[in-house]
């Protein structure tokens, strides 16, 4: 059953929206209820609850509690004669997107997220207003449904009006959540079948001044966890320049930009001719590097040294399906690690008990990070006695899945083809070799990589909120929108 996965690697996140545009499902009956309701939305504080109509209340009660986990590709377009219905009470504003879908926002949340120039600096994108000056029981004096968004007037000595674009409210809806928060998180997980068409960009594309090719390169890396770059001049200088297209090179105990042979110049197995099983780098760091770029510059007088890539998310998905108990153990038990081959350095992660092999997002529960290098593992002196054998069984199963022919993608790299891998997801290794092999490469921090990808996405793949708010006044100052969903 594990073989059948090779040709059709499952998708971890579907690129398809899970539901049709919610604007298309409005009923006529609801529209007329809504237009009646809209006329009465300027209540004074203290009487707001009475304005929650029966129609709205029953619609609110029908709101599905299951969060949508997929991002609609287009947000419902709000048009002047069909504005979202709103209802308010002492604590919250409720917005009806259609007869079934309502979002509720707490008054204090809305006031805290005002993005007027008095409350939010248009250039620095930092909060100016003190959250702690907001009365905990703040209630709007007026709430209006406008074409641009929700307009809220707050009680204060001088009138304070906040505008929240509809698309921004949909994106940030938390009661209930309406979408996945990051459209870039459409990962494509893969097994050995990836060899048929591995993601590749050309050096020319990656270096082109308009950055479009760089966006393609980083998007590939984000979706597949790796990308080849072909046609790179086989020199350390060109490879270093290529690495710096993404962001600052991260200097470590191995130096800044590496250019090395198998002479054990550094105290690590990477600097030998030995085979290396699939692993991630820097398990001994609190913050393992985000990307690793490497480039074989030459290999003379010998053979071997094939590169191994394994999608840790793919293997984890198999494990979760076939061995859920193993998956759970690997998600919970921290693994200590060390880098101790250099006399001048002795690295351990903080906390020293380390991190589990499989790390998850604490909010969504999604798999975020694979950390695995059995060679760098330190003493396991923190296991409950009755977990010792279970844990060894668990890593044996993990190892078996990692080394399955269905998981392993072997490729014999040639000078001129560099590869970048997401070190939080893809495990890499190599076969043993003889002769003289010269490699070069660099680490890039996860934050630098993600930052560059976001900046390029603003330009080349603006999300639905950026698209919907671009025409609002005073939105884009200093080249960045105040409604950017990363803020
Ligand atoms: Fe490595
Ligand atoms: Zn404000």
From TrEMBL:
Essential cofactor(s): L-ascorbate; Fe(2+)
GO process annotations (BP): carnitine biosynthetic process
InterPro entries: AlphaKG_dependent_hydroxylases (IPR050411), GBBH-like_N (IPR010376), GBBH-like_N_sf (IPR038492), TauD-like_sf (IPR042098), TauD/TfdA-like (IPR003819), Trimethyllysine_dOase (IPR012776)
A matching Pfam family: GBBH-like_N
Assigned keywords, A-Z: Carnitine biosynthesis, Dioxygenase, Iron, Metal-binding, Oxidoreductase
NCBIfam families assigned: carnitine_TMLD
Keyword Ligase (UniProt): no
Function statement: Converts trimethyllysine (TML) into hydroxytrimethyllysine (HTML).
Domain of life: Eukaryota
Gene3D superfamilies: 3.30.2020.30, Clavaminate synthase-like (3.60.130.10)
Its EC number(s): 1.14.11.8
Key word Iron present: yes
Family: Belongs to the gamma-BBH/TMLD family.
Originating species: Crucibulum laeve
Domain TauD/TfdA-like: 197-443
Gamma-butyrobetaine hydroxylase-like N-terminal domain boundaries: 88-169
Enzymatic reactions: N(6),N(6),N(6)-trimethyl-L-lysine + 2-oxoglutarate + O2 = (3S)-3-hydroxy-N(6),N(6),N(6)-trimethyl-L-lysine + succinate + CO2
Name under which the protein is recorded: trimethyllysine dioxygenase
Gene Ontology terms: cellular component: mitochondrion
